[in-house]
Amino acid sequence: MLRRNLILIGAAGALLATAAVAQSANTKSVVDAAKAAGVVGEQADGFLGFVRESGDPGLRAAVNEINAGRAQLYREAGAKNGVSAEAAGAATYTQVVQTRLKAGEYYRPAGGAWIRK
């Protein structure tokens, strides 16, 4: 089990690099601004979620685009590492919160409320 978790953590790091390439610069900048403003955050399943509602259709489209890309990456990583896509997403979430989330941005652990870093 420990070996599988270490493999997932390593795969999560590779996923983070791949995910950055898979999204357009505009999509990334829209979501990064929303994260900095406390509107969008990282969820325990590895997907973006809304900390508070937004009526901005461009932001919703950007979040959906990134989440669709992440879903594909999690399926691929899960298949490659012999785990579920859900486990790959959760491992990536852990990496994001520990290494990429900036001060002031939000994350939501499984079953929990939004937390500001």
Describe the structure.
By secondary structure, the protein is of the alpha+beta class. It has one domain. It is about 65% helix and about 10% strand. It contains 4 helices and 4 strands. A 4-stranded mixed sheet has the order 2-1-3-4. Helix 1 runs antiparallel to helix 3 and helix 2 crosses helix 3. The N and C termini lie far apart (about 30 Å). The relative contact order is 0.20.
Radius of gyration: 14 Å
Provide the structure class: alpha+beta
> Which segments are poorly predicted (pLDDT under 50) over 5 or more consecutive residues?
none
Strand order of the largest sheet: 2-1-3-4
Count of distinct structural domains: 1
* Gap from first CA to last CA: 29 Å
- Biggest pleated sheet: 4 strands, mixed
Helix-strand sequence: HHEEHHEE
The strand count comes to 4
What's the rounded overall pLDDT mean?
88
Helix % is 55-70%
Number of helices: 4
Strand coverage percent: 5-15%
Shape annotation? globular
Short characterization:
The protein is an alpha+beta fold and 117 residues long. 63% of the residues lie in helices and 10% in strands.
Protein traits:
117 residues, alpha+beta, four-stranded mixed β-sheet, 4 strands
List the helices and strands and how they pair.
Layout: H1 2-22, H2 25-36, E1 40-43, E2 48-50, H3 57-81, H4 85-100, E3 106-108, E4 115-116
Parallel strand pairs: 1-3
Antiparallel strand pairs: 1-2, 3-4
